[in-house]
Structures are given as structure tokens and as C-alpha cells.
Design a protein that fits this description.
The chain has about 280 residues and is of the alpha/beta class. It has helices spanning about 10-25, 40-50, 65-75, 90-105, 120-125, 145-150, 175-185, 215-220, 225-230, 245-260, 265-275, and strands spanning about 85-90, 110-115, 130-135, 155-165, 190-195, 220-225, 240. Bound molecules: pyridoxal-5'-phosphate (PLP). Pyridoxal-5'-phosphate binds near residues 31, 163 and 234.
């Protein structure tokens, strides 16, 4: 077998978790919460299973859940998102990231990303013939030197991947970071993938801003979310992507032939949890 990803080995998360089990060790290596899922949510999943919601969900996600996501963006960020055209429910944040990269990256395209980084970005880019252009962030601040990032841009730069708040460095972008990023992609063909799965897991009184709040980035950014993180149910693998209609059309072309749709009862249960009564 001529591997398309010769440099890729088993993810560090699987390696460390297996070692922890083998040695009976405390596992601090994999980012999943050790507190329980809301029992109401578990009950709701059971309810929607029993009620017969067991066939394919709509390709873009069930309408009530997309409306919930829409409401969240309005409440938290004051942003109006179109639930029909701009939101797709995915099998976790990871599938959303993979799908956006698959929809965008062609052989020879360059992708700027910041390190240390979550480990699913680079393999997806490599798989589609892209070239990673890493930017090392330096401890203890892990701040981005935007002038340096600018110096890395070439006519082949197609995508900039950001993770805000950052895993593992915990760095959260300020307004100046967002403005610098917007200025850099202005008048170019560069798009942005913003992994925002940790937007509600922050220290102190920091309020992370979605890149979609910036008018220029609003048109150019795929924002990734994860209900696994939001509801501390990482094993359920339900997430979403939010992007402007032109971007979302391309995203859905890949999504529909990749997973097509996501676990139906869980989508209804998550939608219902936040209060709305869903007709079965
Ligand atoms: C930064 C980051 N993005 C995405 C994900 C994946 O999210 P999901 O479990 O919803 O696929 C993780 C999981 O640890 C993560 O740390």
C-alpha cells in the first residue's frame, strides 16, 4: 500500500489513552470532560429513539437544531445567521474541519496554521495535496506575530486555519488579532477556517469573539462548533459548521457524499434541551 499519509501515525490521543488504561494511570492527555452529561439530555435522546426518529435526518441537519444554533449566535454574538443557508450539522467538529478542507484545498495550495495545534488539520490538508505552512507560537503568551504571518503569504496561500480559543495553548484572540487577520485576507482569495469548539471553555472573564463578527471575515470564514464540547458529551460526535452561503454551498457538496446526515435522535434531543418543544 502506497500511503497517502506516510508521516501520519496513530494520534497521540489514542496512544496516551491506551497507555493510561494499560498502566491504570490518571489520563490527562485526552480532552474530554470527567463530569456527567445532563441527565435530561440523556432522557431526551432515549425519548426520540423510542418515538421512532431513527431514519436519516435532513442532509443539512434537523431544522429545529439549526434554529437553536442560529439563536445561540444571535444571543451570544448579536449575529443574524441564516439557518437554511448558512448552518450545517456535522458528525462532530472534526468532520466539519475535514469537510471544509476537502471542499477547498487543491494540490499545491498552501495552508497557514498555528502551532501547537489540534492534530487533525495537517493530515486533511496533506490528503488533498495541500502544503502546510506552520507558524510556531511561543510560550508563555502564544501571541501571533501578524507581520510574520503576512510575510508567509504567497499567491498559493488558500486558507488560514485558526483555533480560537486555542487548544492546547489556551490563547484567545483579541479584537486586534481579528482586525489583523481580516486586513491580511482582504483583497485576496484566502479563506479562513476558524475552529471555535472551545468558545465557552475559557478562564476568567474573557469573552471569545467569533470571527464571523468581523464583516469581512463573515464572508470568508468557516466557523466550526462542537456539541461534544458544549454539552460535555464528546462521544456523541455532533457539531456544526457556519459559513456564508457561497462557502456553505461548496461545504455541503462534500458533506452530502461524506456522512450525508448525522444521528437523528441526538439532534432532536439537543434542540429540545434548550427549551423548545419539538413536534415528533
Ligand atoms: C481544537 C479542537 N477542535 C476540534 C475538536 C474535535 O471536536 P469533535 O469531538 O466535535 O470532533 C477537538 C477535540 O478535542 C479540539 O480540541
Amino acid at each position: 500500500m502506497n500511503s497517502k499519509l506516510p508521516a501520519v501515525e496513530t494520534t497521540i490521543f489514542s496512544v496516551m489513552s491506551a497507555l493510561a488504561v494499560e498502566n491504570g494511570a490518571l489520563n490527562l492527555s485526552q480532552g474530554f470532560p470527567d463530569y456527567a452529561v445532563d441527565p435530561k439530555l440523556i432522557e431526551l435522546v432515549g425519548h426520540y429513539l423510542d418515538a421512532g426518529n431513527n431514519q436519516y435526518a435532513p442532509m443539512v441537519g434537523v431544522a429545529v437544531l439549526r434554529e437553536r444554533i442560529q439563536e445561540k449566535f444571535q444571543r451570544v454574538h448579536g449575529l443574524i445567521i441564516d439557518a437554511e443557508q448558512e448552518i450545517t450539522v456535522t458528525a462532530g467538529g472534526t468532520q466539519a474541519i475535514f469537510t471544509a478542507i476537502a471542499a477547498l484545498i487543491r494540490p499545491g495550495d498552501e495552508v497557514i496554521s498555528f502551532e501547537p495545534a489540534y492534530d487533525c488539520y495537517a493530515p486533511a490538508v496533506t490528503l488533498f495535496g495541500g502544503k502546510m505552512v506552520p507558524v510556531r507560537l511561543v510560550a508563555p503568551e502564544f501571541a501571533v506575530d501578524w507581520d510574520y504571518v503576512k510575510s508567509l503569504i504567497t499567491p498559493r496561500t488558500r486558507l488560514i486555519i485558526v483555533n480560537n480559543p486555542n487548544n492546547p495553548a489556551c490563547r484567545v484572540f483579541g479584537m486586534a488579532d481579528i482586525a489583523a487577520l481580516a486586513e491580511m485576507v482582504q483583497n485576496s482569495n484566502i479563506l479562513v477556517l476558524s475552529d471555535e469548539v472551545y468558545e465557552h471553555l475559557v478562564f476568567d472573564d474573557i469573552q471569545p469573539q467569533t470571527l464571523l463578527k468581523h464583516p469581512l471575515l463573515r464572508e470568508r470564514t468557516f466557523v466550526i462548533g462542537s456539541f461534544g464540547k458544549l454539552l460535555h458529551a464528546t462521544g456523541w460526535k455532533v457539531g456544526y459548521c457556519v459559513a456564508a452561503p457561497a462557502l456553505m454551498i461548496e461545504f455541503r457538496k462534500v458533506h452530502q457524499f461524506n456522512v450525508f446526515s448525522v444521528h437523528t435522535p441526538t439532534q432532536y434531543a439537543i434542540a429540545r434541551l434548550s427549551g423548545r418543544c419539538v413536534t415528533l
